[in-house]
Amino acid sequence: MVRTRVRAAVRRPTRLTPAEAEARTLVLRLCSLLLQYPDAELTAARTSLADAVAALPASPAAAELSAFAGWLTAQEPDALERHYVEMFDLRRRSGLHLTYYLHGDTRRRGMALLTLNQRYRAAGWDTDGGELPDHLPVVLEFAALSGPGAGEAPLRQHRRGLELIHRALTDAESPYRHVLGALLTLLPPPSEADRAAVDHLIAEGPPDEDVGLDPYGTYGQGEFAPPGTFVPPMPAPPTRVPAHPTSRTEGPR
Question: pLDDT band at residue 103, thresholds of 50, 70 and 90?
Answer without folding.
Answer: confident
